[in-house]
From TrEMBL:
This is Glucose dehydrogenase [FAD, quinone]-like. Transmembrane segments: none annotated. InterPro entries: FAD/NAD-bd_sf, GMC_OxRdtase, GMC_OxRdtase_N. Keywords: Signal. Belongs to the GMC oxidoreductase family. Pfam families: GMC_oxred_N. GO terms for molecular function: flavin adenine dinucleotide binding; oxidoreductase activity, acting on CH-OH group of donors. The keyword Nuclease does not apply. Residues 1-16 form the signal peptide.
Length: 231
């Protein structure tokens, strides 16, 4: 038996409303609870049947484009934005999913509830011999986001880079250009750090505030934040 503990952390901005009533908060809590209940019975798609063409006629002309970006995740959105800076280029972004909602914007819920929803492609690995032994047919779920924002809709709103040792190991194996110090400038180029916590230590050698991918510290800090920091 698996037991899960849900922490409902609700941060409501005062920019659009001077105050929120108890009814407002109750409605939002119910929204979260309904998402959790729905995730318990959700069945991921097992094929691409839902994308079957609805019409059998000739394809329609959608215009001419210099670049077509498939997927509007963190990378696809950033690439499309950079390409569109050239006024002479037409850029098309294709996305199979929807925009995020009030659930995907809640830190913990974006992972716990949304991985069993239409925001997840529902991929699984092929049967494994030495891993995934606790799953049916020894197949592990491979969570990948389907929607504007991609997997950032499902990863609890956590921005994290790969382990330095992994990059250096790839480089040592002959994958030139992938050493950590060689990839770090590109991580910095994409990041736009919004320093929301003045008490958080920030090493300027590893962060940047001029990129297109906005990141920030969760505020205000609560006791739940301290618990999360343990992990």
């Amino acid at each position: 038996m698996f037991r899960s503990v849900f922490f409902f952390c609700i941060f409501i901005s005062v920019s659009s409303k001077d105050y929120y009533t108890k009814e407002d908060v109750d409605d939002y809590v119910k929204l979260l609870e309904d998402a959790v209940e729905s995730s318990k019975t959700y069945q991921p798609a097992t094929s691409a049947h839902e994308y079957k063409a609805l019409k059998s006629g000739p394809p329609q002309d959608a215009g001419d484009y210099d670049f077509i970006v498939v997927g509007s995740g963190s990378t696809g959105s950033l690439v499309a934005s950079r390409l569109s800076e050239n006024p002479d280029w037409n850029v098309l972004v294709l996305e199979a999913g929807n925009f995020g909602n009030n659930i995907t914007d809640v830190t913990a819920m974006s992972y716990k509830a949304m991985i069993m929803s239409d925001y997840n492609w529902g991929y699984y690995s092929v049967p494994q011999n030495n891993t995934c032994l606790g799953f049916e047919e020894n197949r592990c779920p491979h969570i990948r986001g389907k929607g504007v924002g991609g997997t950032s809709l499902l990863n609890a709103l956590i921005d994290i880079r790969g382990n330095r040792l992994d990059f250096d190991n790839w480089c040592a194996m002959g994958n030139k250009g992938w050493c950590y110090n060689e990839t770090l400038p590109f991580f910095l180029k994409t990041e736009h750090l919004h320093w929301t916590d003045p008490n958080a230590p920030i090493d300027p050698a590893y962060h940047n505030s001029t990129g297109l991918l906005w990141v920030e510290q969760p505020m205000p800090r609560t006791e739940h934040t301290k618990v999360c920091n343990i992990f």
